[in-house]
């Protein structure tokens, strides 16, 4: 037991000086733990991150500097882990060369749409690194075998990339995004629309009422909180006609996709894109991202308006990481730091101690 000593009050005239204590400052409510600095998968960013059947699942990713594991810049392998330390290669990369058959497997990709919906993992659309836009939707219950659910019916919301994808009220939601003509030919467009589907085949467009969020995408992860979809920041990628990227730090939510509430037009965290968002411990979370350079800050909020920064983040700055909510913890995995590190954030108990 630590003894706390106090000075004796000193009386000067009629003024009593308060006792001065030596109590230690309170510990933060949360603590990061490095689970492993070198997971067996190759470094990557933009990999899909899903929690499904009590495991974390890492899907695809991008690393143009590693042609051994990413011969075509992106790959389509799938890894899974129950604890962040032991990772298993469930599906090896088949996206190797021009002989790849797009009817049998999904093309390598990153920053696509990833959701768990109707007890399955889903990949919705993709990126532009193949020189074209992905208008495919894939489904799997084991991570190894994938069904191309819309093989006979391309999605009606293409071409687009960098969209925000959420599973909400028994539907898959595709929100925003844009075309990137310098990488894949298409008319330059920055989307401000919403599409929903229960099966990945038939899609319906929702028409939001004004006011609602400006055109954007580049939001990793997803946030469904208090029975509402939340949009936290985001931005647009530069194009020929709009050479300056846009960065946002506004916060919006909706219970139906039609009526939107702006909880704050300017949160205290820096405007950013390629960040990750999540819901953990009854709070919204915003982690890392890009705002001209990589970031390492972490913020949380119970209402979307009032935000608290979690201090002393130990991991390196990054964007397009893979963030999981799994086993009572928030997980930060890999990203544009291009390391295969795995970090776990856990809440301390009422006495400020770690749960284990």
State the CATH architecture of the domain at 209-319: 6 Propeller
Percentage of residues assigned to helices? under 10%
What share of the residues does DSSP label as strand, in percent? 35-45%
CATH 4th-level superfamily of the domain at 209-319: Kelch-type beta propeller
- Which fold does the CATH topology of the domain at 209-319 refer to? Neuraminidase
Query: What's the helix-strand series?
Result: EEEEEEEEEEEEEEEEEEEEEEEEEEE
First-residue to last-residue Cα separation: 20 Å
Radius of gyration: 22 Å
User: What structural category do the secondary elements indicate?
Assistant: mainly beta
Strand order, biggest sheet?
Answer: 16-21-22-23-24
Mean pLDDT: 93
* Main sheet makeup: 5 strands, mixed
Low-confidence stretches: 1-24
CATH C-level of the domain at 209-319: Mainly Beta
The count of β-strands is: 27
Number of separate helices: 0
Quick one: overall form? globular
Question: What descriptors fit this protein?
Answer:
globular; disordered N terminus; Neuraminidase; mainly beta; 27 strands; 4-stranded antiparallel β-sheet; 5-stranded mixed β-sheet; 356 residues; single chain
Summarize it:
With 356 residues, the protein is an all-beta fold. It is built from no helices and 27 strands. Keywords: Kelch repeat, Repeat.
